[in-house]
Specification:
It is built from 3 helices and 15 strands. The chain is α+β, with helices and mostly antiparallel strands. It has 2 domains: 94 residues, Sandwich (Immunoglobulin-like); 114 residues, no CATH class. The strands form 4 sheets. Strands 9-10-11-15-13 form a 5-stranded antiparallel sheet, with helices on one face. Strands 1-8-3-5 form a 4-stranded mixed sheet, with no helix packed on it. A 4-stranded mixed sheet has the order 2-7-6-4, with no helix packed on it.
Length: 257
């Protein structure tokens, strides 16, 4: 009887060990570290000094990393990845300062604090929308209203207007809306002189509300598209609104698509 109980305990222990091993082996996704920045700001971040680190400015492209000689091990630190980021490796043990510069004109001073840790992905999130020269050239290659229509057609079909890039939502327009309407910015694409937002608008009230495109007129807004199109929004439902905004704060009048 004792032998049988001992055998059962051993079997149970083996099963628990196998279960624990499978739990430990389960893959875990580690999200990028988001670092808010503004032009010419300085931030302090932890860097691995045992593994590579990837630095990214979403919606922009890092074109240079400036540092004192010998701070980084890889000579090609200024060469970007496919996502516009740079991979940096250091063997430093004390904090040091370097600068990242982007295609969109952003310069950030970074105090790197070396640590023995896994390599990490750092996303520097700028509060200023990027302006792309190739997108600006496309915008100006055709009549203004035609450009606005082309932008709306591109994003509505799941594409991206020529020269535009998706970036974290920043500097979203502020609307004067009825209190029972809530607006949630979901996406933003930066162009040259224009950028476009995808918003979710929800009716939190108890009665239907009219949602004409003119309801979303605001400073620098150049075009508005409600899709699926509806003149009213029922209680507890939402709709998508696409808003095209001028980066320059100037335009040739409002145009609603």
């Amino acid at each position: 009887m004792k032998r049988k109980n001992k055998a059962c305990r051993l079997t149970l222990l083996a099963g628990l060990l196998c279960l624990g091993a499978s739990v430990l082996a389960e893959p875990v996704a580690v999200l990028p570290v988001k670092v808010p920045v503004s032009p010419d700001s300085q931030v302090r971040v932890a860097l691995s000094n045992t593994d590579p680190n990837l630095l990214v400015v979403p919606g922009d492209r890092i074109i240079a990393v400036d540092s004192a000689q010998g701070m980084f091990l890889n000579d090609n630190k200024a060469l970007g990845q496919a996502n516009g980021g740079v991979q940096l490796m250091t063997a430093q043990t004390t904090p040091f300062t370097f600068y990242i510069r982007t295609e969109g004109g952003l310069t950030v001073s970074v105090i790197g604090v070396p640590q023995k840790r896994d390599g990490r992905v750092l996303q520097f999130i700028s509060g200023r929308p990027v302006q792309h020269d190739n997108a600006r050239r496309w915008e100006r290659s055709q009549p203004y209203v035609r450009t606005l229509i082309a932008i709306q057609q591109a994003v509505l079909s799941g594409g991206v207007p020529e020269g535009f890039t998706e970036a974290p939502v920043a500097a979203a327009p502020v609307f004067s809306l009825p209190g029972c309407l809530s607006v949630t910015p979901l996406q933003m694409w930066s162009g040259g002189g224009l950028r476009v937002y995808r918003l979710t608008v929800r009716n939190r009230g108890a009665s239907s509300l009219a949602v004409p495109e003119r309801l979303f007129q605001a400073r620098s807004v150049r075009a508005v598209m409600v899709f699926p199109f509806s003149t009213t929004l029922m209680p507890g439902t939402d709709t998508q609104v696409w808003v095209t905004v001028s980066n320059d704060g100037e335009g040739e009048g409002n145009a609603n698509g």
